[in-house]
Design goal:
By secondary structure, the protein is α+β, with helices and mostly antiparallel strands. It has 22 helices and 23 strands. Helix 14 packs across helix 16. Strand 8 and strand 9 form a beta hairpin. The protein starts with a strand and ends in a 9-residue tail after the last helix.
Length: about 650
């Protein structure tokens, strides 16, 4: 059979030639066969795609839409064959929300680099079903190197993912069962001599990550020296005779601890009867073994603990009698010893601590010392200076925020309380917290709960709170700027850090400490300290406390050119004592002028005292000074609130 294509046309005649019909016949058998072969190939391809759950597609970057989807692509994504192909936005809506950003980022990188991409992602169908997709894309470039289109395939790997997940669950269950029963499993490949073990074996034997555990020698080396020869001979005999074995022995961990194990081994033979593997288990029976010898060790352990306690007490008394250095806290004065004694008492507890003292006295060092000697020392210590953060952002800084909670919140952010979970958070200058943040902090202290800014999910926190302030919070409570209930929650265990002028005995030791630190940093060799310098240091009142002393020592070390440390006399000039408060009121004119300036600033700041937009900042004076003036002049700052 052949295929013929006929083309018939009417040719108009002339005066001499009448009209006639012209017919042209063409043999198109080969073309028809080629078309049939192509249709069969397309059918085979479509069936292959259906069986492999693999769809093919083409995408136009210029039009930002798909220009071709195979039938299997439509089936994978649950779309009607009669529907129009999705554009980019419509397709992204199908991608699982948790995978959408990563998907977008990978596509954009491919477009920038004009490279292939391979990625796994999930899609959510209209009926809520979730599918796992493995996608591959390839850019097609024109002669100028621009991307004309993308072509690629998407494979539905949902079943594979489910099988993998099921396998992981099974393996996880097995590992969990081994962990609970303290049973490890192992296998020896006889031909290669390679040993492989389960994770529980690593835990039982206390194996470190960098140790090579693939040989028998490693595992035998962990066996107690008194048991090693017996177990090696038993194992070798079982391997030669191809028999099971059952034994108990001790292992010595890298830290010297001893564990008691019960081990079982079994030979695995191939069809020819040859030994190919040895498999077995090791069970940690230390608790049972320890129960038998616990009474024998009790008196010895009590004696050891008593000796250790005596040694620790002797060492502690020696430190107190000599120059006491508690971390970076240097000194031995009675005033400082009181603080250090408080640290020793409160550190092991979980109580909230309120540290008070003048600026520069080292309140954060005290907080870090409390944390380091607590049960939370292995966890995070998060420090927050409440005075340095704008009042509009302090809640977000402490408790975090959700995406879109306010202008600029482009993504979800964890707060300091989340970062400090199971550790310690240090709230420096807590007296500067705005009123609304004080309420949120009070809730955390009372209920251990908070919410992110812009969120509605309640989060719980396990964190120890240490606060510090250089302000008199009782005055702040009287002035209405600090909540009394929050004060009582923070003031569970107060520690007052003395100013440097009240611990003059510590000044020579502090000078020597800072000189050594900064001399080493500057590469200088300072052997002694000028006596007159020490005398000036002890007579100077140090209004800036230890921070001022530290800065002056660092500056002096820079100037020192020899081996003797000295401080410029002018740097330690006597300061005028603070001027006492006037007994009576200011003259009426001056007092009224001051009142007017303060009220104008309060009106502009809508009654707000602290913060960058507060009245104190507008007047260029400290907040504490302005609070005092408001109280002296009897100004009602609340009337300026909107």
């Amino acid at each position: 059979m052949i295929w013929v294509s006929n083309n018939v046309s009417l040719v108009p005649g002339t005066e001499r030639v009448p009209r006639f019909i012209m017919a042209l016949s063409e043999d198109i058998t080969e073309r028809k066969r080629a078309e049939q072969a192509l249709r069969r190939s397309e059918a085979y391809l479509a069936e292959a795609q259906r069986l492999a759950k693999t769809g093919s597609w083409a995408y136009s970057p210029a039009a930002e839409k798909c220009i071709y989807w195979s039938d299997e692509m439509l089936r994978i994504f649950g779309l009607d064959p009669q529907s129009s192909l999705p554009d980019r936005e419509e397709f992204l809506r199908l991608v699982h929300p948790e995978d959408r950003d990563r998907f977008n980022e990978r596509i954009e990188r491919s477009r920038r680099e004009k490279s292939d991409f391979v990625q796994d992602y999930r899609v959510v169908l209209t009926d809520g079903m979730i599918k796992h997709i493995h996608g591959i894309g390839h850019p097609v470039l024109d002669e100028t190197g621009n991307i004309i289109q993308y072509v690629g395939t998407d494979v539905d790997v949902t079943e594979q993912k489910r099988s993998e997940e099921k396998l992981r669950h099974t393996e996880a269950d097995l590992l969990e069962a081994q962990r609970i029963s303290q049973t490890g499993s192992w296998k020896l490949d006889v031909s290669s001599g390679t040993v492989t073990v389960s994770p529980q074996m690593f835990r039982i034997f206390g194996v470190k990550p960098d140790e090579d555990t693939s040989t028998l020698d490693f595992w035998f080396s962990r066996i107690h020296l008194e048991d090693r020869k017996r177990i090696q001979e038993l194992f070798e005999r079982s391997r030669i005779q191809e028999t099971d074995y059952d034994a108990e022995y001790r292992v010595v961990l890298s830290d010297g601890a001893i564990k008691h194990l019960h081990a079982v081994g079994h030979p695995v033979l191939n069809k020819s009867g040859e030994l190919v593997e040895f498999v077995g288990t090791a069970i940690d029976v230390t608790e049972q073994a320890q129960a038998r010898i616990e009474l024998e060790k009790a008196f010895e352990e009590i004696k050891s603990l008593k000796d250790r306690l005596r040694d620790e007490n002797l060492a502690l008394r020696e430190q107190i009698d000599q120059a006491f250095m508690f971390e970076d806290i240097v000194g031995s004065s009675p005033a400082l010893q009181t603080v250090l004694s408080s640290i020793v008492k409160v550190a092991p507890t979980d109580s909230t601590v309120l540290i008070t003292g003048e600026t520069g006295t080292g309140k954060e060092l005290i907080a870090r010392a409390v944390h380091k000697h607590s049960q939370r020392s292995g966890q995070a210590f998060i420090s927050v200076n409440c005075a340095s953060i704008p009042s509009s952002l302090i809640a977000s800084e402490l408790f975090g925020h959700e995406k879109g909670a306010f202008t600029g919140a482009v993504q979800r952010r964890q707060g300091r309380f989340e970062l400090a979970h199971s550790g310690t958070i240090f709230l420096d200058e807590v007296g500067d917290l705005p009123a609304e943040t004080q309420i949120a902090l009070l809730r955390v202290l009372q209920e251990r709960q908070f919410e992110r800014v812009g969120g509605n999910r309640v989060l719980t926190t396990d964190v120890r709170v240490i606060a510090a302030t250089n302000r008199d919070l009782t005055e702040a409570i009287a002035a209405g700027t600090f909540r009394s209930d929050l004060f009582y929650r923070l003031n569970v265990f107060p520690i007052e850090v003395p100013p440097l002028r009240k611990r003059k005995e510590d000044i020579p030791m502090l000078v020597e400490y800072f000189v050594k630190r900064y001399a080493e940093k500057a590469g200088k060799h300072i052997r002694r300290i000028d006596n007159k310098t020490l005398q000036r240091c002890q007579s100077y009142p140090w209004p800036g406390n230890i921070r001022e002393l530290q800065n002056i020592v660092e500056r002096s070390v820079i100037f020192c050119s020899g081996d003797t440390f000295w401080i410029e006399k002018a740097w330690l000039a006597s300061v005028q004592p603070p001027r006492p408060e006037l007994a009576g009121p200011l003259p009426d004119t001056l007092q009224n002028q001051e009142r007017k300036m303060i009220e104008t600033a309060l009106a502009e700041s809508k009654g707000k005292v602290a913060g960058p937009e507060g009245a104190a900042a507008k007047l260029g004076i400290p907040r504490s000074t302005l609070d005092t003036k408001i109280k002296q002049l009897g100004i009602n700052k609340h009337k300026f609130h909107l």
